[in-house]
Design goal:
2 copies of one chain form a homodimer.
Chain A (H helix, E strand, L loop, with lengths): L1 H11 L9 H10 L5 E4 L7 H10 L6 E6 L6 H6 L4 E5 L3 H16 L6 E3 L2 E4 L4 E4 L2 E3 L3 H12 L4 E2 L1 H9 L7 H15 L7 E4 L3 E4 L5
Parallel strand pairs in A: 1-2, 2-3
Antiparallel strand pairs in A: 4-5, 5-6, 6-7, 8-10, 9-10
Chain B binds a DNA duplex (30 and 30 nucleotides) through α6 and α8.
DNA sequence: CAGCCTTCTCAGCGAGGTCTCAGGTCAGGG
DNA sequence: CCCTGACCTGAGACCTCGCTGAGAAGGCTG
C-alpha cells in the first residue's frame, strides 16, 4: 500500500520518500526536513505510535498524519494525544487523504519559521534566538538587528552607511557606532567560538562569511 | 431564532446553512465539510445532544458550539463531555456568540490539542483551568487570556503591541498594562514554583518558554 | 449599601542598553 | 620606515525600558 500511495502522491506533485519500517522512518523524519509525515500505526520494528511519541519528545513538530486499521489496538484519541495532527482510519478514500494533507500543509505554511543561517550560526527572527554551534547566544536588540541585517546579506560587503540606514534608520550619525556594535557582536558570536565570521573590508564595510567563518 | 441567527451571521460574512431538525442537521454535518457547527440542544426528531454524540462517535471532529436553555435537562458539563468545543446557555448575547465562533475557528485553524501545555504548565481553554506541576492555579479572566495567548505562541517572542491587540483588543493603549499583568501572571504561575517560564526579551516583548521555564 | 474582586493608571526606581569620546592599533602608500 | 587614515575598544555618561507598590474606578455579590 505504501508504494501505491507514493506513486499517487508523486503524480499529485508531492516529493515522496518511503520508509519500510518504524526505525528507518524515525531516522528519516529526524534528518530529512520534511514538510509532513504520513505515519501508519502498524509498522515493523517500531510502531507508528512510538515514532510519533519519540519525535514529539524530541520537540520535532513536523505535521504528522496517522493512518490505522479501524479496529487496531490504538484509536484516534490515542493518536491525537500523542501529538499527531490528523488521523485517518482504514479504509480511507485516497481523495480524502490528499485533502487532509493539503489542509495540514496549508496550516503549517503560515507558521513556518524563517530561520537565517550562515555556517553553524543561526538566527530566528520570530523566536528572537541566535545560536552558534547549537549553543544559544544572548544579544541586545541593537546587536540582534545588526546581526540580522548582516545575515540577510551574508557574503556581501555591506557599507557602514547602509548599516546605519537599515539598522539605525538614520544616515547622518557617526559611523563609529557601527564599529562599536560590530565589536560587541564579534565578542559574542565569533571570539568565544574561535571564529571570524564578521570580516572587516577596509574602506568598504563589513562582510558576514556565508559559511559562518 | 435559527433564522434570525442565520441572517445575523450572514451579515457578518459567514456562509450559513440551516437545518430544521436533528436528523437533517446530522446529515448535513456529515456531508457538508463545515468549518463549525452551532447546535441547539432542543431539536425535533433528534436532540442536539445525540447529534453531537453521534458525530464524535463517527470521528467527525468538526468544532461544535452548543446552545441550550438555562435549566434544560443537560448542563454545560454534559455538553463538553460529549465532545462539544464550547457551550452557551440561553439567553446569550449575539456578540458573545460571534466572539466564541471566531475563537473556535481561530483555535481550530491549527487543530491543536484542546489543552495547551508548556513543560509542567497546562491550560485548558474550554474548562478555563490552569495547572502548574499538577496543582491548580487561579487566574482572573484577563490573566487567563494573557496566559492563553502566550501559550498559543510559546517559544516565540511576542511584542506588547501584539499582546494588546489580541488580549485587550486595542492597539493604542499604554503598554504598561501588559507589564503589570505579566507581573501578576509571574506571581501566580512562576514565582511560587521557582520557575521562570515567562521571560522578558528587552526591547522586543515576552517569550513563554516551551519547556515551562 | 458594604465588601470584595478585577482592572487599570501612575510614578519612582534600578538594571541594562545605547552611544560618545579619546586613545590605541593596524594596514597601506610614499 | 614613517605617516596617515581607517578601524578597534575601554570607560563612562545618559537615558530608556521594564518592574512594582499604591491606589482609584467600576462591577458584582450578599
Amino acid at each position: 500500500m505504501a508504494a501505491a500511495l507514493q506513486r499517487g502522491l508523486q503524480a499529485e506533485g508531492f516529493a515522496v520518500d518511503l520508509a519500510h519500517d518504524g526505525e528507518q522512518g524515525l531516522h528519516q523524519a529526524r534528518h530529512g526536513d520534511y514538510d509532513i509525515v504520513v505515519l501508519d500505526i502498524m509498522l515493523p520494528r517500531l510502531s507508528g505510535y512510538n515514532v510519533c511519541k519519540q519525535l514529539r519528545a524530541e520537540e520535532n513538530w513536523v505535521p504528522i498524519l496517522m493512518l490505522s486499521a479501524k479496529d487496531g489496538e490504538y484509536d484516534m484519541a490515542d493518536g491525537l494525544d500523542l501529538g499527531a495532527d490528523d488521523y485517518l482510519t482504514k479504509p480511507f478514500s485516497y481523495v480524502v487523504l490528499v485533502a487532509r494533507l493539503r489542509a495540514l500543509l496549508r496550516r503549517d505554511a503560515g507558521r513556518r519559521p524563517a530561520v537565517l543561517t550562515a555556517g553553524d550560526l543561526s538566527l530566528d527572527p520570530a523566536r528572537r534566538k541566535v545560536e552558534r554551534a547549537a549553543s544559544p547566544v544572548e544579544l541586545t536588540p541593537r546587536e540582534f538587528a545588526l546581526l540580522e541585517y548582516l545575515m540577510r546579506r551574508h557574503d556581501e560587503v555591506v557599507s557602514k552607511a547602509e548599516i546605519l540606514e537599515h539598522v539605525w534608520d538614520t544616515f547622518d550619525t557617526d559611523p563609529n557606532v557601527v564599529e562599536v556594535y560590530v565589536g560587541y557582536l564579534r565578542r559574542k558570536v565569533d571570539v568565544p567560538f574561535g571564529r571570524n565570521a564578521i570580516q572587516t573590508v577596509r574602506g568598504a564595510g563589513y562582510r558576514l562569511a556565508g559559511d559562518g567563518g
